[in-house]
Every structure is written in structure tokens, then in C-alpha cells.
Amino acid sequence: METNPSERIIKLSLDERTVVRRSPEVEQERRVAIYDLLEDNTFAPVDTDPGPYSLHLSIQENRLLFSVCDSNEKELAEITLSLTPFRNVVREYFMICESYFEAIKTATPSRIETLDMARRGIHDEGSHLLRECLTNKIETDFSTARRLFTLICVLHIKG
Fold first, then answer.
1. Cα–Cα nearest to 98, from 119, 113, 129
2. Beta partners for 79?
3. Could you say which DSSP state residue 52 is in?
4. What's the CA gap between 156 and 137, in Å, rounded?
5. How far apart are CA 83 and CA 90, in angstroms?
6. Which of 14, 158, 145, 35 is nearest to 94 (CA)?
7. What order of strands is seen across the sheet that includes strand 53-60?
8. 63 SS3 class
9. C-alpha span between 142 and 27 (Å, rounded)
């Protein structure tokens, strides 16, 4: 499928004001998600000027805020989502990630594989939920939603 060059994110930033510190594993996940997202994404806010876009993600008052700007950083839209629907899936994702990263140190390969499959399954669930919540707000593909979900989880970490 050919991607429209105007329907994409070319710059992405996260609100770092609430971050105390992150583990090396989380930092690596953040870096990879941002890199992969910028390399290949589909992102088209509804009823907004054409892109490409600069996106700033933040959490404010139990809401996820998408600040969408053009390539010159002129704000085009501010889209908010309640974090309430994400609460359980993010909690489950953190728990399985913690088990997975612990297992990598000492567990058998089959145990690690089982935890990794569970981790990916919960991540997929969060990605589908994000796409559903973005309906009629932002059009995106599944791989972009997966990377955005990773970043939403990173924003939840308070240190």
C-alpha cells in the first residue's frame, strides 16, 4: 500500500516534564518506537490541513493529548482522549513486561517465548483500542497505532 507523503508524522516529541527516570529497557523501547514511527507511519487528523505533521504527546489530567502541528510547528489541532479505557491494558502490559524482563535473566527459552507472546498480545490489544478511540479523530494504520501505544505506555511511567 502506497502511503500519502502528507499523511505522516515527520517529528515527534514526548512531554518529559513528569519523567523522573526510566530503566534502560524502557529507554530502548522509547527510542525504537520513535525511530520506527518516523521511518514509516500513516497519520491523518480528520478535518485538519494536510501534513506532514509534527506531533507532541503528553498526559494532562488523566487525558492523552495529541498536539498536532504542521512542519513549521504551527498548531493545527489538539486532540484529547480519556485515559480511562487504557488503564487496565496499560497496567497488564507493565506487569507482563516486568515478568518478561525478569525472565530474560534466568528463565528457560520456552518461558521467555511464552511471556513475549503474551506481551505482544496485550500490546496488540492496546493498539486496537487506540485505533478505536481515534476513530473520527485521526486516521492511522495498525503499525503506527502500535508505536503510539508504546509511547503512551512510556508517558505513564513516573519513575
1. 119
2. 66
3. -
4. 22
5. 10
6. 158
7. 9-14, 53-60, 63-70, 75-82
8. strand
9. 22
DSSP state of 138: E
What is the distance of C-alpha 148 from the center of its chain? 2
User: What is the C-alpha separation between 102 and 37, in angstroms, rounded?
Assistant: 27
Decide if 108 contacts 90 (C-beta within 8 A): no
Residue for cell digits 505482544? 120
Contact of 150 with 157, CB cutoff 8 Å: no
The tally of CA atoms less than 13 A away on the side-chain side of residue 150 is: 20
Question: Is the separation of the CB atoms in 62 and 157 below 8 Å?
Answer: no
Return the closest-CA partner of residue 46 out of 9, 16, 7, 82.
Answer: 7
pTM of the entire predicted model = 0.88
Contact residues for 110 (Cβ-Cβ < 8 A; gap 6+): none
- Best CA proximity match to 46, nearest among 110, 136, 123: 136
CB 155, CB 63: distance < 8 Å? no
Confidence check: pLDDT of 1 > 60: no
The percentage of the chain sitting over the pLDDT mark of 90, rounded to a whole number, equals: 68
Question: Which pLDDT tens digit goes with each residue over 83-112?
Answer: 999 999 999 998 998 899 899 999 999 999
Rounded distance, CA 35 to CA 93, Å? 21
